[in-house]
Amino acid sequence: MNGITKFCERLNECLKYSDVKQTDLAKAAGVSKQCISDYKSGKSLPGVETLYLICKFLDVSSDYLLGLD
């Protein structure tokens, strides 16, 4: 499984089990809802700053989201 696929899988998992809405995550990360949708589908990946904000908001490590753990 490549890194993009693992990121998508784990992001979707975090959103599902935490009941966080895409809109809330987008606001916390300072990006549009469409950006979050693109991250979830694998069309794009967040930059370092956005990844940090996503991890902080979801209370997970970047290693986990990126499939490095």
Describe, in plain words, how this protein is organized in 3D.
71% of the residues lie in helices and 0% in strands. It has one domain: Orthogonal Bundle (434 Repressor (Amino-terminal Domain)), CATH 1.10.260.40. The chain is globular and about 25 Å long. The chain has helices at residues 3-18, 22-29, 33-41, 48-58, 62-66. The mean pLDDT is 94. It has 69 residues and is mainly α.
SSE blueprint:
Layout lengths: L2 H16 L3 H8 L3 H9 L6 H11 L3 H5 L3
Range of strand content? under 5%
Low-confidence stretches: none
Tell me about the biggest sheet?
none
CATH superfamily: lambda repressor-like DNA-binding domains
What is the CATH C level class, in words? Mainly Alpha
Encode the helix/strand succession as letters.
HHHHH
Shape type: globular
- Span of the ends, CA to CA: 14 Å
| Helical percentage | over 70%
**Number of individual domains:** 1
Average pLDDT rating = 94
Number of strands: 0
Offer a quick outline of the entry.
With 69 residues, this protein is an all-alpha fold.
Keywords:
mainly alpha, 5 helices, 434 Repressor (Amino-terminal Domain), 69 residues
